[in-house]
Specification:
The protein is an alpha/beta fold. The protein contains eight helices and 15 strands. It has a five-stranded mixed beta sheet with strand order 3-2-1-6-10. Strand 11 and strand 12 form a beta hairpin.
């Protein structure tokens, strides 16, 4: 699969609420934005990563690829981000002399000890992260066969040619490669519309990932309920005021602080679990996703968790 990333392709991210397309181009050794587009999805088209209405999704994809800016997409080859809730990770430490079919079988066998699914229900790929004289460390990534086949069918019907399916957490670790360090782990918190995905990258591998069912829509809803205002107005206050104590006399900050305690607890528990299990420390937290742009969120998390937290420039 890694060789496919050398072919020209654009990226496509399909969530429950929107589809985004991005094509990059290289000029004089530098990377530039070639084309970008986004369309919103109405409720009932995709839910928790599962396609509920294939025809509607196909129509939305066609609309998206025909309306990118500042130019149209030049290619129809695509790399698609798979929903995190439909993927599985496993790390195995195997004898160094295992290669070929024996290695493939050993990786699958080890992974299926912790994944409650039959091998025929999964597609998987793997990466050898580290190899020593007597052992090798391997990352297994599996996804539901049914999910991939459904997306594959819709994409082809929309006139696209999928080269590969990728996991969002894996693509984020590549995008933030310059932020990774050798003397400790890095936590990536992808705060989206409906979920927050936590991923720890350490010693050249994704070590563990978790989904927290709290995100941007919940922040908007709690502001709306507390102030008895519309969701639209609450969204504006979230984006403009956030956790800034100087705006709106700090009222929005106080509302969000109470609600953010759940995410804080999840992050702290997640970090403690990994540090106790691995004996290594998380040295920084990287924020991404649309809801990470809430004013003063990074400084609030940093002060409450005690770890350097910021939004990186990929």
């Amino acid at each position: 699969m890694l060789n496919l990333f050398k072919k020209p392709a654009f990226g496509l991210d399909i969530s429950d609420y929107s589809i985004e397309a991005l094509e990059l181009e290289k000029k004089l050794g530098k990377i530039y934005l070639g084309a970008y587009g986004r369309v919103e999805l109405e409720k009932g088209i995709v839910e928790d990563g599962k396609i509920l209405n294939k025809e509607k999704l196909k129509e939305k994809i066609k609309k998206l690829i025909g309306n990118t800016v500042p130019r149209k997409l030049k290619i129809n080859q695509v790399i698609v981000s798979l929903p995190e809730s439909k993927t599985f990770f496993h790390i195995s430490k195997l004898p160094a002399n295992l290669v070929g079919k024996e290695l493939y079988s050993a990786i699958e066998s080890e992974a299926l000890k912790t994944i409650p699914l039959a091998p025929e229900d999964l597609y998987f790929d793997f990466q050898i992260a580290k190899k020593e004289k007597d052992w090798q460390e391997v990352l297994y990534v599996g996804t539901l066969r049914e999910t991939v086949n459904e997306y594959l069918g819709v994409l082809k019907d929309a006139g696209l040619s999928p080269l590969a399916f990728d996991i969002e957490s894996a693509s984020l670790t590549r995008a933030f490669g310059a932020e990774m360090i050798k003397d400790g782990g890095v936590l990536i918190a992808d705060i989206g519309t409906t979920t927050t995905v936590l991923t720890i990258f350490d010693e050249e591998l994704i070590r563990v990932s978790a989904i927290v069912p709290i995100a941007g829509n919940d922040f908007t809803r709690v502001i709306s309920e507390k102030l008895k205002i519309s969701l639209e107005k609450a969204e504006g206050l979230k984006r403009n005021c956030g956790l800034n104590p100087k705006k709106r006399e700090g009222k929005i900050m106080l509302i969000l602080q109470g609600f953010l305690q759940d995410i804080l607890n999840e992050i702290k528990t997640f970090i403690s679990f990994y540090e106790e299990k691995s004996g290594r420390k998380i040295k920084k937290i990287l924020l991404c996703g649309g809801s990470s742009l809430i004013p003063e969120l990074s400084s609030y998390l940093a002060s409450n968790i005690g770890i350097n937290t910021y939004i990186p420039n990929p």
